């Protein structure tokens, strides 16, 4: 039979921004009983004590007492917006995903965020920015949970708690909120040298974006695409902002942190309300799906590596326009729950060990953050595709499921076997062969190269961008208390580039060490510089 829709789709439940609150002729309790007075507690006489029997008082205060939910363990500070994605059709040869077919329009919700600060922290701190997009496709929701930096600190998700502990405020003093101005962060990245590439992007102007509207976005990991014929390709996702990539100057960023800590949130909201809708183009870099899973010698499973755009051009596949601000921040921006496992037919995962761990982490944390297993029923998280699952009960269950036999096949509820479904639109795991190999706690050897791409990034910068990077390292390392940590990080900089190391060492008043690894012979990639990243005029 036809799938039962468990809950109305998000489209049906969207509350317009023009809707007014509390416009009825009278207020009620949560149970619908009319209230005569919500301003005075029930007392034993005007001067007497408040009575425990005042159930309206208790309901009002109790609900208030529970208004807050835990903030996200990372990416707590964010701002979101609704929009529309329109596909060009240029990805049809490599993926069967329906939302990428020519002319297809898909509603989206995007949440931008900082990583390390708490919910109330300032927007313009030096940090990585989250760029998470929920595509409500008619084949199920697709979440592209990316960042504004194309590489990550670590190569294996098992280190994620460690890198976040190193980046979050010191446990004794709870300072600072900004990412990098303290010892534990620099201790981590100088000991776990795979983090050097990401840290260099953070020290560049990319770490202090001018606006969410002027950030690139990256899916970071390599994904596996499948087309109608079942052929596979490997791919990386990119968002290119129409306004080009622009950053703040460090002095601007610091002043704004004090004068307008909501700078990015306000900018996004005001731009959309003024009709200046932010736009991005979604693009993919496509690589042959070879058994080695490498391209031009670059390991595609290593999330600390990019593939320069000169070697694999970013091919535009669609356009995103953000055109509507949330009606209610809590209901939408705070309760939205992204998950890398939300994949439509035609897009699948790879064995990137960071990606594999993320597949577990998001739902796990959301079970706590959103109070149980039914958060996909919250309006912002509801798929726009019909849902017909056999999940039952649990905290905050909103569906009234009919029938007695939530299992297939059964002989009671219609008795039909597991329906074949609409095979054309079904998700299929790509039957990739898994190697017969001994179990190990080890990385591929290629993951040991921690410096060549950091050097590539540094050498691709314009003179002014290099100057900003030197100032950023000097400022941030200057805040460390431990001399040994500064020296160890200078050693890492020497392994990236001796000029970079010397300049920072001079700023810190320390000697510049010699490289301990051979310097990689790399060709600069102009696409890594922010200069000249605007779209051509329409
Ligand atoms: C949240 C990106 C690595 C765990 C987020 C968010 C983004 C993001 C954009 C914010 C989502 C939102 O706006 O609600 C990334 C990227 C990564 C990465 C691009 C690396 C390529 C990891 C890893 C883990 C992890 C390795 C854990 C093993 C989390 C958790 C949240 C989160 C627990 C909070 C989710 C919630 O409370 O809803 N991440 N992340 N992330 N990430 Fe990641």
TrEMBL record:
Phylogenetic lineage: Bacteria, Bacillati, Actinomycetota, Actinomycetes, Micromonosporales
UniProt-annotated binding residues for heme: 72, 111, 160, 358, 362, 369
UniProt protein name: Catalase
Keywords on record: Heme, Hydrogen peroxide, Iron, Metal-binding, Oxidoreductase, Peroxidase
Catalysed reactions, semicolon-separated: 2 H2O2 = O2 + 2 H2O
GO biological process: hydrogen peroxide catabolic process; response to oxidative stress
Origin: domain of life: Bacteria
Job of this protein: Decomposes hydrogen peroxide into water and oxygen; serves to protect cells from the toxic effects of hydrogen peroxide.
EC id: 1.11.1.6
Family (UniProt): Belongs to the catalase family. HPII subfamily.
Numbered residues of crosslink 3'-histidyl-3-tyrosine (His-Tyr): 339-362
First and last residues shown, out of full length: 57 to 594 of 753
Positions of the catalytic residues: 75, 147
Example of a GO cellular component annotation carried by this entry: cytosol
